[in-house]
Amino acid sequence: MGVAVMKLRNPPVNSLSLECLTEFTISLEKLENDKSIRGVILTSECPGIFSAGLDLLEMYGRNPAHYAEYWKNVQELWLRLYTSNMILVSAINGASPAGGCLLALCCDYRVMADNPKYTIGLNESLLGIVAPFWFKDMYVNTIGHREAERALQLGTLFSPAEALKVGVVDEVVPEDQVHSKARSVMTKWLAIPDHSRQLTKNMMRKATADNLIKQREADIQNFTSFISKDSIQKSLHMYLEKLKQKKG
Ligand SMILES: CCCCCCCCCC/C=C/CC(=O)SCCNC(=O)CCNC(=O)[C@H](O)C(C)(C)COP(=O)(O)OP(=O)(O)OC[C@H]1O[C@@H](n2cnc3c(N)ncnc32)[C@H](O)[C@@H]1OP(=O)(O)O
């Protein structure tokens, strides 16, 4: 039926390393250029994890040129996903913090597994970093200004039930039904003529995407100088240590 399934596979936690981001963007571009493909189901092959978000090791202890290159690729993937002409449905089969949530938010419809261990949200403030304006814009577009304001300040990671209530996801289903539900949602969306759906999607999303496009360079510079600060590097170090200690 012209539907591709993209499975994130970067064990152990599907963090979005530079290599992973680049491959993702290229795959998406290929699908976009393949006229037989009308929809993509985005899911994960890592058990219990949709995506741990941006790779913290790409943002810690590197040089400014690396940060700039990394951020350019984060922007690129986001622009491709958010403005895709294809129907994107995410089958969220695991934890989805920060950049993981961002991937899901780019989709046209989000189905999440009903497992309270899985959480989703933009938790940047908990790491001592700040979600950039275009993450924020997309959050506001999805859940409204008040909910986004609160969730961004608190770095809230929502359980599936909470995410459904606030509108971060569109549907919560038993874990073994995430993929079948994503497929049935896709079937419904495929019934809409592409041209009218695409024009409507463009009308809804263009201003948000253009907001980044017109200041991409400045955004890269902001990111680079922000992430290079000693205080921010210290926060990231502490967060990485906390992740390590969780094990021991
Ligand atoms: C003025 C304004 C200017 C604007 C400037 C912009 C500022 C920057 C904006 C950047 C935005 C960032 C968005 C992000 O995506 S940051 C990443 C946020 N991600 C997280 O907080 C998730 C952290 N991870 C977890 O919570 C858990 O790992 C998990 C995903 C729930 C999985 O738990 P688990 O128990 O199954 O696995 P765990 O043992 O924790 O982890 C296994 C190993 O993986 C490492 N790891 C986990 N997450 C990441 C990650 N995101 N990047 C890199 N590595 C990660 C973890 O450390 C373990 O490693 P090791 O085995 O100990 O070596």
TrEMBL record:
<comment type="function">
    <text>Key enzyme of fatty acid beta-oxidation. Able to isomerize both 3-cis (3Z) and 3-trans (3E) double bonds into the 2-trans (2E) form in a range of enoyl-CoA species, with a preference for (3Z)-enoyl-CoAs over (3E)-enoyl-CoAs. The catalytic efficiency of this enzyme is not affected by the fatty acyl chain length.</text>
</comment>
<comment type="subunit">
    <text>Homotrimer.</text>
</comment>
<protein>
    <recommendedName>
        <fullName>Enoyl-CoA delta isomerase 1, mitochondrial</fullName>
        <ecNumber>5.3.3.8</ecNumber>
    </recommendedName>
</protein>
<dbReference type="Pfam" id="PF00378">
    <property type="entry name" value="ECH_1"/>
</dbReference>
<keyword id="KW-0276">Fatty acid metabolism</keyword>
<keyword id="KW-0007">Acetylation</keyword>
<dbReference type="GO" id="GO:0005759">
    <property type="term" value="C:mitochondrial matrix"/>
</dbReference>
<keyword id="KW-0496">Mitochondrion</keyword>
<dbReference type="InterPro" id="IPR029045">
    <property type="entry name" value="ClpP/crotonase-like_dom_sf"/>
</dbReference>
<keyword id="KW-0809">Transit peptide</keyword>
<dbReference type="InterPro" id="IPR001753">
    <property type="entry name" value="Enoyl-CoA_hydra/iso"/>
</dbReference>
<comment type="pathway">
    <text>Lipid metabolism; fatty acid beta-oxidation.</text>
</comment>
<dbReference type="InterPro" id="IPR018376">
    <property type="entry name" value="Enoyl-CoA_hyd/isom_CS"/>
</dbReference>
<comment type="similarity">
    <text>Belongs to the enoyl-CoA hydratase/isomerase family.</text>
</comment>
<keyword id="KW-0413">Isomerase</keyword>
<dbReference type="GO" id="GO:0006631">
    <property type="term" value="P:fatty acid metabolic process"/>
</dbReference>
<dbReference type="GO" id="GO:0004165">
    <property type="term" value="F:delta(3)-delta(2)-enoyl-CoA isomerase activity"/>
</dbReference>
<keyword id="KW-0443">Lipid metabolism</keyword>
